[in-house]
């Protein structure tokens, strides 16, 4: 009888731990844009990423600037121009990468 109670207590404890683990996995801090701006960024832009629309996030271009992250509306002309310039710089840095020679 006592063995049965111990097993039941262990089973209850295991179920509790699994439930807490599953709950902790579902609770994620989502860092995304919920609003976007249309004003041109004046701070130097270091990089960018595209954010797709989800249940809690809006579609946006997230620019990384020297002052932090900025959420911008993807339909703005200046946003597309900034992306083109960043991609051009990235392509040029790839093609201008130093090559090693074995002389």
TrEMBL record:
Pfam families: IL8. It comes from the Eukaryota. Gene3D superfamilies: 2.40.50.40. One of its GO terms (cellular component) is extracellular space. GO terms for molecular function: chemokine activity. Residues 31-86 form the Chemokine interleukin-8-like domain. One of its GO terms (biological process) is immune response. Residues 1-24 form the signal peptide. Coiled coil: none annotated. Keywords: Cytokine, Signal. This is Chemokine interleukin-8-like domain-containing protein. It comes from Pogonophryne albipinna. The lineage of its organism: Eukaryota, Metazoa, Chordata, Craniata, Vertebrata.
